Amino acid sequence: MLNPEFAINPESRCPCVLLLDTSGSMEGSPINELNQGLQEFAKSLKDDSLASLRVEVAVVTFDSNVTIVQDFITASNFQAPILTAQGGTDMAGGINKALDLIELRKKEYRGNVTYYRPWVFMITDGAPNPGWEPSAQRIKNEEKNKQVTFFAVGVEGADMGKLKDIIVRPPFQLRGLNFQGLFVWLSSSLARVSQSRVGEQVGLQAPGSDILV
Predict the structure, then answer these.
(1) Rounded Cα distance, 170 and 185, in Å
(2) What are phi and psi of 187, to 5 degrees?
(3) pTM for this one?
(4) Domain housing 65
(5) How far apart, in whole angstroms, are the C-alpha atoms of residue 182 and residue 152?
(6) For 110, 133, 148, 151, which has the most beta carbons within 10 A of its beta carbon?
(7) What distance in Å separates the CA atoms of residue 208 and residue 116, rounded to the nearest whole number?
């Protein structure tokens, strides 16, 4: 039987987990600008009528703990959370939680709607706590098997060398605290994917020099 959620909105789904570092070093301007960027992200997706129905957003934060702030919800219903910063950097726990969420959501899609390859979009300003290697291998395995597309963005202070070890594709380095520009790029990229056919290769424009170093 068709899940009522998908009967109401039978559009293909383009899932994206925002995996966000809320450790203590993000306190002050970084977390405030990140919150502003999330507001812009929510607005931009809602402004695109098709993306608002197809893009699904989940938010997972990691500090000393890992928290599912928002489980998957269509962009039309997504409300940007207000995040606070504290504690350490359990990046490995956050990565595993994000990938677990995707696996669960895929099971719900099957037999109900088609879906695009999920994205994880991680933002961090530091380095992971010890024990990150298995989660990095998990990313590599899932990328190799085309189960996920995993992006990472380093904010000032991030260990960019370690990020290169953790993910497959080169990490981005944010210019200053231009989270709003970054999230406008992310929303437009997701919208472009959502307007393609499922399985189609979509060329995405890289963020500009005003966004990345």
Answers:
(1) 17
(2) -65, -40
(3) 0.97
(4) 22-158+166-194
(5) 12
(6) 148
(7) 25
